[in-house]
Amino acid sequence: NAGVTQTPKFQVLKTGQSMTLQCAQDMNHEYMSWYRQDPGMGLRLIHYSVGAGITDQGEVPNGYNVSRSTTEDFPLRLLSAAPSQTSVYFCASRGGSGELFFGEGSRLTVL
Amino acid sequence: RKEVEQDPGPFNVPEGATVAFNCTYSNSASQSFFWYRQDCRKEPKLLMSVYSSGNEDGRFTAQLNRASQYISLLIRDSKLSDSATYLCVVNIGNQFYFGTGTSLTVIP
What we know:
The complex is a heterodimer of chains A (111) and B (108).
Chain A: E1 4-7, E2 10-13, E3 19-25, E4 32-38, E5 42-51, E6 54-57, E7 64-66, E8 76-78, E9 87-94, E10 100-102, E11 106-110
Parallel strand pairs in A: 2-11
Antiparallel strand pairs in A: 1-3, 3-8, 4-5, 4-9, 5-6, 7-8, 9-10, 9-11
Chain B: E1 4-6, E2 11-14, E3 19-25, E4 32-38, E5 45-50, E6 55-57, E7 60-65, E8 70-75, E9 84-92, E10 95-98, E11 102-107
Parallel strand pairs in B: 2-11
Antiparallel strand pairs in B: 1-3, 3-8, 4-5, 4-9, 6-7, 7-8, 9-10, 9-11
């Protein structure tokens, strides 16, 4: 039962570098989403997708890009990393009862 | 104004105690409501959905008051294993809004 799988679990970047956080789910969920979690802020929605080929912005989309070419995969791209993007990133998909299933998280540090 | 507000705590309670958490939400169009549990440095996991009529799952009871726009979680007979952060979550359409979480520590 893989559920939602995120890679990498840890990453250190230098300011200005780009990278992609990978997210895959094997539950055939149409809805997938990315969140960042910062101390005292709670989880905030970055981008979401309601199906292959469809993406939309959440609360904090600036500095991030997404695409959804398949039902299973929903990668998050940081185009030019900034220290303000240091955070824990969670990918989640939505089940039939409306609940979210989360990956284990990716801890990103931008120096 | 934040969509979802929670008292961050911390709540430190002895084993066997009853503890209640409240959460308020600002958008009356909110459709679905959940409580999630998050252990330190782990991903959030669904504890329970919250229904208008209230619902119970073992030692956990969730209530929703749409008129006052608040959600509550009651934990009875607290166990050491209940120590975690509890997140209140509200869903509007395709967006989910999370509270900052309430920290609970159950003390032996």
